[in-house]
Design a protein that fits this description.
The chain is of the alpha/beta class and 297 residues long. It has a single domain, classed as Divalent-metal-dependent TIM barrel enzymes (TIM Barrel), CATH 3.20.20.150. Helix content is 42%, strand content 16%. The protein has eleven helices and eleven strands. The strands form two sheets. A nine-stranded parallel beta sheet has the order 3-2-1-11-8-7-6-5-4. The termini are close together. The relative contact order is 0.17. It catalyses: scyllo-inosose = 3D-3,5/4-trihydroxycyclohexane-1,2-dione + H2O.
Length: 297
């Protein structure tokens, strides 16, 4: 069982509206999204594209529903653009998150990313050279120091189609960055999709993990994705991901690692699906019941 005093439970708005494919869930409003999060029993949320940019407005809408902001996606371009460009945007985003009470910002290196492109997700992924690895680590360490000085933590999101996708890349990343400035955002779904044992990765790096995405996977859809050379976004539309307890990922060992490690922070249900096919409230409730049953949260 997980300790409610240490582990908090959140959910991402991507199940209601997909910022990468705005036609998915375009009919779902911000108010509906956060109301259904609360109705399903979640107390934390990441930030989505439809969320108000005004701090006072956003706080009021969340406070009356008993929800707090726990993280926001941030795209870095440290190996393809001048560092200063990323830093400027990072400072603005961390200032916003801090004002909202969040302790974490989730960074993903989007230089040469194929996740949003119309190309097969298992083909043509960019591979960094040694100089780019150094550039990425140096830039992230700088950003991590900025976050730390604000009382926040930079967590890095390994992700399909990006320069940190494979097990070897995750390992090298963790070797290259400063462990006091840059932490891991562990994503069970992206591990499984990449063909990595999520239990192995989390078991190895749980002490350096400060944010967790719980995402289930449908293995048959992944197999079809490989066979038919789908893009990442095509796979999402077809149902690659789903909420914990609805797919093929065994979460019991993952929850066990979290419990035994004494992890403190958020675990967040993040399962991008087509809301016209997978009703967001229905699947949020399904995830909430499964996690309660397995963890006591």
């Amino acid at each position: 069982m997980l300790d409610k005093n240490k582990v908090k439970l959140g959910i991402a708005p991507i199940g209601w509206t997909n910022d990468d494919m705005p036609d998915l869930g375009k009919e779902n409003t911000f108010e509906q999204c956060v109301s259904e999060m609360a109705l399903a029993g979640f107390t934390g949320s990441e930030i989505g594209g439809k969320y108000p940019k005004d701090i006072k407005t956003l706080k009021k809408a969340l406070d009356i529903r008993g929800i707090e902001i726990c993280n926001c996606w941030f795209s870095s371009f440290l190996i393809s653009r001048p560092y200063e460009e990323t830093e400027k945007e990072f400072i603005a985003q961390t200032d916003f998150l801090k004002a909202m009470g969040a302790k974490v910002i989730g960074v993903s290196e989007q230089s040469y990313s194929t996740q949003g492109k119309d190309q097969p997700i298992f083909v043509g992924k960019y591979v960094m050279n040694d100089e780019e690895w150094k550039l990425l680590a140096k830039g992230l360490n700088k950003l991590g120091k900025i976050a730390k000085d604000k009382g926040m933590m930079l967590t890095f999101h390994h992700h399909m189609g990006t320069v940190v996708q494979t097990e070897e890349e995750i390992d090298r990343f963790m070797e290259e960055v400063d462990p006091d400035l840059v932490y891991l955002l562990f994503d069970s779904g992206h591990c499984s999709f990449a063909g990595i044992d999520p239990i192995k990765v989390l078991g190895k790096y749980i002490d350096r993990t400060k944010h967790i995405h719980l995402k289930d996977l449908r293995s048959d859809v992944v197999a079809q994705s490989r066979k038919e050379s789908w893009s990442f976004l095509k796979g999402v539309r077809e149902g690659t991901f789903t909420v914990p307890g609805d797919g093929d990922v065994d979460f019991a060992p993952i929850f066990d690692i979290i419990e035994k490690s004494g992890y403190e922070g958020y675990v967040v249900v993040e399962a991008e699906q087509d809301p016209a096919v997978a009703n967001p409230l229905e699947y949020a409730i399904k995830a909430r019941k499964y996690i309660a049953e397995k963890t006591g949260l």
